[in-house]
Amino acid sequence: MGIRDFFKTKQKSEDVKKSTPYYRIGGEEKVRALSNTFYDIMETDPMAKELLAIHPQPLDRIRHVFFLYLSLWLGGPDDFQQQFGHPRLRARHLPFTVTPVLKDQWMYCMRKAMFKTVDDMALAQQLLQALDQLAEHMINSK
Hints:
Blueprint lengths: L2 H16 L2 H4 L2 H18 L4 H5 L6 H14 L5 H6 L4 H5 L6 H18 L3 H18 L4
Helix pairs in contact: 3-5, 3-8, 8-9
């Protein structure tokens, strides 16, 4: 392997990184906006009142943790994992009663936030489909 091969490999790695949803939606600024918009909707929309009720107040810390997780999940920096370890999302949610109604409220907030902050509608739909499956997996009560 020569020096030219090293640079080609590094460039391919950077290209792959830049093709992740994190970068496609606009990187840190847009992911932070998505995360904050999600919680803004949860705090203000009566459709999400039960969901808001199970979150610790004030929401400052959870907003930040969710931003870190969302960044990781979208293929961005792994700051969440560096600070908190493997996400183990289902295990982290087991102490809470997560019902289909709460899942629907979570998706309602995420859908509104996604459509408000992500410009690429096809990408937004793909992400929402994946998030719906993830949210479905969090349900632990009827």
